[in-house]
Write a structure and sequence with these properties.
- The complex is a heterodimer of chains A (300) and B (412).
- Chain A has one domain (2-238).
- Chain A contains 12 helices and 2 strands.
- Chain A has helices at residues 2-32, 39-59, 65-91, 100-120, 136-141, 147-169, 171-181, 183-188, 193-219, 226-241, 246-267, 272-286, and strands at 126-127, 221-222.
- Chain A has a two-stranded antiparallel ribbon with strand order 1-2.
- Chain A starts with a helix and ends in a 14-residue tail after the last helix.
- The model of chain A has no long low-confidence stretch (mean pLDDT 84).
- Chain B folds into 2 domains: 7-68; 111-383, no CATH class.
- The longest helix of chain B is centred in the first third of the chain and has 27 residues, at 40-66.
- The chains are: A mainly alpha (300), B mainly alpha (412).
- The interface between A and B is large, with 68 and 59 residues.
Amino acid sequence: MDYFLELFVGGLTRGSIYALIALGYTMVYGIIELINFAHGEIYMIGAFTALILSSVLAMAGMSGPAVLVLASVVAVLYSACYGFTVEKIAYKPLRRASRLSPLISAIGMSIFLQNYVMLAQTSDFLPFPSLLPDLDFIRDSIPFIGPTELIIVLVTAAIMVLLTLLIKFTRMGKAMRATAQDRNMAMLVGVNVNRVISQTFIIGSALAAVGGVLIASHIGRINFYIGFIAGIKAFTAAVLGGIGSIPGAVLGALVLGWTESFATGYVSSDYEDVFAFALLVVILIFRPAGLLGRATTQKV
Amino acid sequence: MNRLAEIRKSLAIACWFMFLTFPVMVIRVNTIEKVIDWRWLNMLYIGAGSFAVSLLWRYLMGRAAGGPKPAGPEASAPAPPLQRLREDPKLYRPALLLLAAAALAYPFLVSTYQVNIMVTALMYVVLGLGLNIVVGQAGLLHLGYAAFYAAGAYTYALLNHHFGIGFWTALPLGGLVAMLLGILLGFPVLRLRGDYLAIVTLGFGEIVRLVLENWNAFSFGPSGISGIPRPGFFGIEMNLHGATVYLYFLMIGLCLLTVFVVRRLQDSRIGRAWIALREDEIACQAMGIDKTRAKMTAFALGSTWAGLVGVIFAAKTTFVNPASFTFLESAMILSMVVLGGMGSILGVALGAFILVLLPEYLRVFSDYRMLLFGIIMVIMMVFRPQGLVSGIRRTYEYRKGEPVEHGTAAGR
C-alpha cells in the first residue's frame, strides 16, 4: 500500500508540473489556435535563469528562503518577457497566414532558443541547487511524501486557484474568454485582441517558469534540452484533457502523471513514455475531443 | 518616414534585448569552482546586433506592408522569374535539359563526400514529396512521419540481419511495411480533426521510436544494427565511391518516379478528393467523397515513400539506430514541405535541398549552424508564409461567348 501511495504522490507531482506547462499551451491554443512549440523552451529558460541567479546570489552570500524567492520571482518575470518577445517576433506577423506557417515558425523558434542557451551557457547537465526548504518533519509524519513533492503540489494548487479567479472574475480574464470564443466578435465589442494575446503569452510563460523552477529543484539538474520532452508531454496532457479547456489541461496532466508513475512503478520504466502516448491514442479514439473538450458540431 | 522615431524605437528594442539576454548571455556560473564569469562584452554585441537587425526588420516590414500586397498575394503584375520559368515551355525545357545534364555529370565532378550529401538531399526530396501527399494535398497535419521512415530502415536492417535478404527484395517490402503501418495509424485518427490528429501522429511516432529503443530483443535497442550491406549491382563489388555514385543514380531514379507518381496522383480522382478534403471536410462529404477512404489512401501512400527511402537510408549509412528517427526528424521533413511551399512539387524539392544543404554549408559556422537554422526558419515564415513556391491552384476561367460544356465534367 505504501508503494502505491508513493507512486500516487509521484504521479501527482509529475502531473502538477505538466499542468503548469500545459496551461500555457491550452491558453494560447484557446486564443490563437497555435501549438506553441517554443513553450517548452520558455520553461527551460525559466529553470536556467533561476539556476544562474540563485548561484550568483548564493555566492554573494545570501542564503535560505531569500534566494529562493528572489531567484524564482526574477526567473518567472524573465520567462514572461521571453514569452512576450517570442510572440511578437515569431507569431504576430503570421496572424493571418495559414495554420501551418506559425507552427513552422514555432519549431524554428524552439530550435533557436535551445541552441541559444546551449551556446551561451553549456551543453552539459548543470546541478541545480535545492532551493526548496527541506521540511524534514513532513517526512517523519507522512512517510510516502517527500517535502519537495508536497511543496510542488501545494504551489500548483494555489496557482490553479489564482488562475481560475483571474479568468473568472477580472476584466482581463473576461477579455480572454471573449477572445477565445470568437476573436472577431471580441474585436467588435472593443477588446484589444493583440493585448489579450500578449497577456496570454505572458501568463502562460510565467506558469511554465514556475514549473521549471519547481521541477529543476526537485530533480536537481538541468540542461538546455529539458524543455523539449516536457513540452511534448505537457502538450499531450493539454490535448488529453481537451485543448483550449483550462480544467481539461489540469485533469489531462494529472491523468498523464499518474499513468506514467504507475507504469514506471508496476511495469517498466523503459516504457513510461510509450504508456503516456498510448493512453493519449486510446482516449482520443473514444473521446475525439479530449476528456473535457466539447464535441463541436460543425455548422455549415 | 520619421527616421528619428525609427532609430529611437530601435534603440528601445536594443535595450530590451540587452535586458532580456542578460542572465543567459552575460553570466556564466561555474558551479564546481564557484566562480562567476561576467561576460559584459556579449551584452554589447547583443545591443549593437539587435539595433541593426531591428532597423532592417522595420525597413523590410514597412516595405512588405506598403507594397502592392493587399490586393491578393498572387495577383502582383510582373510574374517572378521562377514562375515564368515554370510556365513558359521555351524557358523550362532548356532549363530541364540543363538540370538533367548537371545531375548526370555531378557525381563525376565532385568528391565522394559531396555526392553523399546530394544523396541525402535527394532522399529528403522524396520524403518531402511523400509527406506532401498527407500534409499538402490531403491537409492532414502529420508530425510522426519519421516513424515510417524508421519502419523502412528497420525492415531492411532486420530482414538482412536475420535472413540475409538483399536490398532489392527489401525495397518493396520496406515500402509495404510502412504502408501497413500507415493504415494502422489511419484507423484511430480517422475521427480526429486538426490538432488532435497532429498530436496523435506525434505520439505514434514517439511510440515507434521508443519501442525500437527499448525492445532490445527485437531491435537491438539504442545501439542499433550495423553492417547492413550497400545495394548490389548484379553482384559487382564496388568501392565506396562507386557505391555512393550508384546510390546517387538510384536516388535520381526514385526521385523521378516519385515526381511522376505524385503528379499523376494530383490530377487523379483521389488527388482531387484529397484537395476537397483539405479545403472543407463537410462539403467534401456532401459531394459524395468517401472521407475514410481518402484519408486512408493519403496515409498509406504517403507512408510508402517514407518506407522506400528508409530502406535506402539503411543501405546508405549501413547502420540504423533509433536516434535517427526522432521528432526533430519529422519536424525537419515537415519544415521542408512548408518552407518550400505546400502542394507544389518544385517547392517541396527546393525546400528539401535548402534544409539539407544549408546546415551542411553552414558548417563553417559549426556551433552556430543550428542557431542560424532556427532563425532562418522563423524569418522565412514571417516574410513568405506561403513558402518559396506557392502551389498552383487549378482554376477554370469562364469566358463570355464560349459554350459551357456540360457532359465532360460528369465523366471524371
